[in-house]
Design brief:
Layout lengths: L2 H11 L12 E4 L7 E7 L2 H9 L4 E6 L12 H12 L3 E4 L2 H5 L5 H9 L2 E5 L10 E9 L1 H12 L4 E3 L6 E7 L7 H6 L4 E4 L4 H10 L2 E4 L2 H4 L2 H14 L2 E4 L7
Parallel strand pairs: 2-3, 2-11, 3-4, 8-9, 9-10
Antiparallel strand pairs: 1-4, 5-6, 6-8, 7-10
């Protein structure tokens, strides 16, 4: 498939025009015209790009790409090395950030909900159907220890739990990655627990003082599954060769 045709299909499928994002979504670095073999991963780091070179891939597809708002625009150092490797080897780079968080079937939030058994899913911000934060419930109430164990089993990473004081967890809100500040909205709605990837110093006090359990499950760990689901969709629907590579990241 031609690289720009693939970009158009992904752009439309993920509805990138619906989002004001912190980076460009879609084809970020152009490579060879024909794409057949794709390497996917969470972040377009040098290690992932090097594996794509070794496996003679035509494209890399990630959640975290390049050209973030507020970063230095100069292409030097680490950024230069990454882009140089892509261009010298004719590798296309596709990146989808918020569109891949929010997609109702393949998105990071949707995939995490499936892994954890969360039902009745809806936007955390009811006025915004594309809210990055989500809310739902468990079929049976869980203790904080049980939910912590469920997260660890699903993500192969022990979460950091901040005790919110409630004995049982029935309702739950979540936002993968760096969505810890959605805890305020969740707490104001009386939700029992909030799950995200990262944690900030302030998050601890919010959880304790507003009475909501908080689970920091890891930015990387909570965002591995959207890009894998998208890669499987590409393999099934577009009949391209897609391989997911997990570059370990403890954060």
């Amino acid at each position: 498939m031609k690289n720009k045709k693939l970009a158009n299909k992904l752009d439309q499928f993920l509805e990138i025009h619906q989002f004001k994002d912190y980076c460009p979504n879609g084809l970020q670095v152009e490579g060879v015209e024909q794409v057949q073999k794709i390497i996917t991963g969470v972040t377009a780091c040098q290690a992932l790009i090097d594996i794509a070179v070794e496996q003679q891939a035509d494209a890399v597809l990630v959640h975290h790409g390049f050209f973030w708002k507020g970063e230095d625009q100069a292409i030097v150092g680490m950024k230069y090395n990454r882009i140089k490797t892509l261009i010298e080897n004719g590798i296309n780079l596709y990146a989808y950030h918020l569109p891949l968080d929010v997609h109702p079937e393949l998105g990071n939030n949707a995939q995490l909900a499936k892994l954890l058994g969360i039902t009745d899913r809806r936007p955390l911000e009811p006025w915004d159907k594309r809210s990055v934060g989500r809310v739902g419930k468990f079929e049976q109430a869980l203790s904080a220890q049980q939910l912590s164990e469920r997260i660890e089993s699903a993500l192969s990473r022990k979460p950091l739990h901040i005790n919110g004081g409630k004995k049982e967890i029935k309702s739950v809100a979540w936002c993968t990655g760096g969505g810890q500040d959605y805890i305020n909205i969740a707490a104001e709605q009386g939700i029992d627990a909030f799950i995200s990837g990262e944690i900030s110093e302030r998050t601890v006090h919010i959880a304790r003082e507003m009475g909501i359990h908080y689970f920091a499950a890891g930015h990387h760990a909570s965002e591995r599954y959207g890009v894998q689901a998208l890669g499987q969709w590409i393999n099934d629907e577009l009949e391209l060769d897609v391989t997911y590579i997990d570059i370990d990241n403890p954060v």
